[in-house]
């Protein structure tokens, strides 16, 4: 099998596991869906191993007989039985059992990814699933810098990636001669008292407060309209600098306060941008698909 295809499919397995782990953390009854997702995650991985070894079986548990290197057969069989109890008999497990199954599946993947593909589970990157080439480039750089221990520059690159991600997504949604549908107000940056030659202090303060408030509200609405988790975005904003992309394509980062850079914060920022990219990719469209561009007028022959 092609190595790039293997890495991509392992990335999908990892994303599926993350979804299951998130479901397992939810209260009842939402947490029960984690069992179904965990089973799908294991099945997708086993099918990939089967393709690699030219092995195909009708039942999931039959793969252990055909591929002796697979581990944790009894634990996965237990997961399979819980899935059948939910799906076919309506018997619901305790929330603690759901959390336990998530731990088992993670351990199964850690062991067997290394055995079957000589890859560490922690080294599988979800960045390969990001479609935006510019955002993906900065995320790859962020991951490499994080591994080297340069957490500050790693986090800076996640800020660049997020900027590219949102700009690219919004840019191709703009109808001809019209603003983006994600533009919720005029930019108030230049509508400050400084540019209005105001003398009254109270009025200057009022104008500046209104301008700042409108900009903040528009930014928040835009993030929410993209379907991005605003609470995670707020945390991301605490870690990252304000970035400006210059005309030559280079980024300028404005940082006003020293931060406590750490591997945990850098990893959070990488995961947040990847999660945001996948959310945007759930529904994408181009304005050209629905808008007829105006054709240039042909010169009139005399």
Written account of the structure:
By secondary structure, the protein is mainly α. It has 2 domains: 122 residues, Four Helix Bundle (Hemerythrin (Met), subunit A) (Up-down Bundle); 120 residues, Four Helix Bundle (Hemerythrin (Met), subunit A), CATH 1.20.120. Helix 2 packs across helix 4, helix 6 packs antiparallel against helix 7 and helix 7 runs parallel beside helix 10.
Explain briefly what this protein structure is:
Helices cover 59% and strands 3% of the residues. By secondary structure, it is mainly α. It folds into 2 domains: 122 residues, Up-down Bundle (Four Helix Bundle (Hemerythrin (Met), subunit A)), CATH 1.20.120; 120 residues, Four Helix Bundle (Hemerythrin (Met), subunit A), CATH 1.20.120.
The end-to-end distance, rounded to whole angstroms, is 64 Å
Spans of at least 5 consecutive residues whose pLDDT stays below 50 are none
Structural class: mainly alpha
Mean pLDDT: 87
Strand order of the largest sheet: 1-2
Please tell me the total number of domains: 2
- What is the makeup of the main sheet? 2 strands, antiparallel
Our count of helices gives 10
Number of strands: 2
The Rg value, from CA coordinates, equals 25 Å
Please state the second-level CATH architecture of the largest domain.
Up-down Bundle
CATH class wording of the largest domain:
Mainly Alpha
Q: What fraction of the residues are assigned to beta strands by DSSP?
A: under 5%
User: What portion of residues is helical?
Assistant: 55-70%
Could you name the CATH topology of the largest domain? Four Helix Bundle (Hemerythrin (Met), subunit A)
Morphology call: elongated
The helix/strand order is HHHHHHHHHEEH
């Amino acid at each position: 099998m092609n190595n790039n295809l293997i890495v991509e499919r392992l990335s999908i397995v990892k994303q599926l596991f993350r979804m299951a782990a998130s479901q397992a953390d939810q209260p009842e009854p939402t947490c029960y869906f984690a069992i179904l997702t965990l089973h799908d995650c294991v099945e997708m991985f086993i099918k990939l191993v089967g393709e690699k070894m030219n092995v195909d079986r009708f039942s999931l548990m039959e793969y252990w007989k055909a591929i002796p290197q697979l581990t944790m057969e009894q634990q996965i069989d237990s997961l399979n039985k819980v899935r059948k109890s939910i799906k076919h008999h309506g018997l619901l497990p305790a929330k603690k059992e759901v959390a336990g199954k998530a731990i088992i599946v993670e351990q199964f993947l850690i062991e067997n990814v290394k055995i079957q593909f000589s890859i560490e589970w922690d080294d599988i990157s979800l960045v390969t699933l990001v479609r935006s080439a510019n955002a993906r480039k900065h995320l790859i750089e962020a991951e490499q810098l994080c591994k080297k221990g340069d957490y500050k520059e790693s986090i800076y690159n996640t800020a660049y990636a997020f900027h590219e991600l949102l700009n690219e997504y919004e840019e191709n949604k703009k109808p001809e001669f019209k603003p983006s549908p994600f533009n919720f107000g005029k930019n108030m940056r230049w509508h400050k008292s400084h540019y209005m030659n105001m003398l009254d202090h109270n009025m200057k303060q009022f104008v500046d407060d209104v301008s700042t408030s409108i900009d903040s509200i528009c930014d928040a609405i835009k993030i929410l309209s993209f379907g991005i988790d605003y609470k995670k975005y707020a945390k991301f904003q605490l870690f990252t600098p304000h970035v400006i992309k210059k005309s030559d394509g280079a980024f300028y980062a404005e940082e006003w306060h020293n931060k406590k850079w750490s591997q945990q914060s850098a990893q959070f920022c990488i995961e947040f941008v990847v999660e945001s990219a996948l959310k945007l990719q759930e529904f994408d469209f181009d304005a050209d698909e629905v808008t007829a561009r105006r054709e240039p007028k042909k010169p009139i022959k005399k």
